[in-house]
């Protein structure tokens, strides 16, 4: 680690790259602009190459600066996250359970049910985190991880919550209109959820293939998360693949409707993973989750 520059230089550089100017970085760090400039030149001397292109106004990052900026932002982010985990581990006087799950699971399945948990266990606080990946894992500070798939995870203790079914859903008015017009899934307007972080979830191509349905093209609107996609479905702009964990309650409430005879079982389920020896409060939470599942 002796070859690393002082942390203050990296913090200064990250502020400049994030805010786009030395002036804004100086205001953010509550230092003078000459101090920012001097810190950047000291860092460049340490690295051995220019990090800022000063031939243009405002100055911008060089290729080397871009590389270092990404590394510093990621490194400082990991440090901040680790500090949060350490603080969480040492809150012995607070009864807390930290849960990691996908954004869709948190928004549409877990969060609407938490008031019932608090009514029974008001002394326990449940912290919900939705990481970027669609496969949350147990890390320091995480007590419970909800995961979708076929199982087989080895860390901690895993049990199945419920089988996950897939069925197209849409606004009742849209489905009524499509059926009245005699239109099927082969030409209905589709809404897709696609992003590098949800690769474990089936898409329309997988569903249509499982149903043996042919479609000339699967065009339509595309979103990178289920929260945005679901809003488009509520607005009647198309059909979305529905999952029990995401659209189940909306179907029960009548806000959405299943496509007739459209349910497919892909052999996947939702699982819950805890540490091998969960805390007492974690066990209370898991016992309650079983009643919900």
Distinctive features:
7-stranded mixed sheet, 20% strand, D-Maltodextrin-Binding Protein, domain 2, alpha/beta, 11 strands, 293 residues, Arc Repressor Mutant, subunit A, 43% helix, two-stranded antiparallel ribbon
Strand content: 15-25%
In the CATH hierarchy, what is the architecture of the domain at 163-268 at level 2? 3-Layer(aba) Sandwich
- Average pLDDT confidence is 87
Termini gap: 49 Å
From the spread of the alpha carbons, the general shape counts as globular
Structural class: alpha/beta
Order of H and E elements: HHHEEHEHHEEEHEHEHEHEEH
Assign the CATH class of the domain at 163-268: Alpha Beta
Give the number of DSSP strands.
Answer: 11
**What oligomeric arrangement do these chains adopt?**
single chain
Discrete helix count: 11
Biggest beta sheet attributes: 7 strands, mixed
The CATH topology of the domain at 163-268 turns out to be: D-Maltodextrin-Binding Protein, domain 2
Helix content: 40-55%
Radius of gyration: 25 Å
Low-confidence stretches: none
């Amino acid at each position: 680690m002796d070859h690393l520059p002082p942390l203050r230089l990296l913090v200064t550089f990250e502020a400049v790259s994030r805010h786009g100017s030395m002036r804004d970085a100086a205001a953010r760090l509550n230092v003078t602009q000459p101090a920012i400039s001097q810190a950047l030149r000291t860092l460049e001397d340490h690295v051995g190459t220019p990090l800022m292109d000063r031939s243009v106004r405002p100055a911008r990052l060089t290729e080397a600066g871009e590389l270092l900026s990404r590394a510093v932002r990621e490194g400082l982010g990991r440090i901040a996250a680790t500090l949060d985990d350490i603080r969480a581990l040492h809150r012995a006087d607070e009864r807390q359970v930290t849960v990691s799950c996908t954004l869709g699971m948190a928004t549409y399945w877990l969060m609407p049910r938490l008031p019932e948990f608090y009514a029974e266990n008001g002394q326990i606080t449940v912290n919900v985190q939705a990481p970027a990946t669609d496969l949350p894992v147990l890390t320091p500070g995480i007590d419970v991880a909800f995961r979708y798939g076929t199982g087989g995870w080895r860390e901690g203790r895993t049990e199945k919550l419920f089988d996950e079914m897939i069925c197209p859903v849409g606004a009742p008015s849209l489905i009524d209109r499509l059926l009245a017009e005699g239109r099927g899934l082969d030409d209905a307007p589709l809404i897709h959820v696609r992003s590098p972080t949800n690769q474990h979830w089936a898409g329309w191509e997988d569903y249509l293939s499982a149903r043996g349905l042919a479609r000339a093209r699967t065009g339509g609107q595309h979103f990178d998360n289920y929260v945005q996609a679901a809003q488009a479905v509520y607005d009647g702009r198309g059909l979305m693949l529905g999952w029990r964990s995401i659209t189940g309650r909306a179907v029960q409430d009548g806000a959405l409707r299943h496509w007739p005879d459209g349910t497919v079982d892909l052999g996947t389920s939702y699982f819950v993973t805890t540490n091998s020896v969960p805390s007492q409060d974690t066990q209370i939470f898991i016992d309650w989750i079983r009643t919900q599942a």
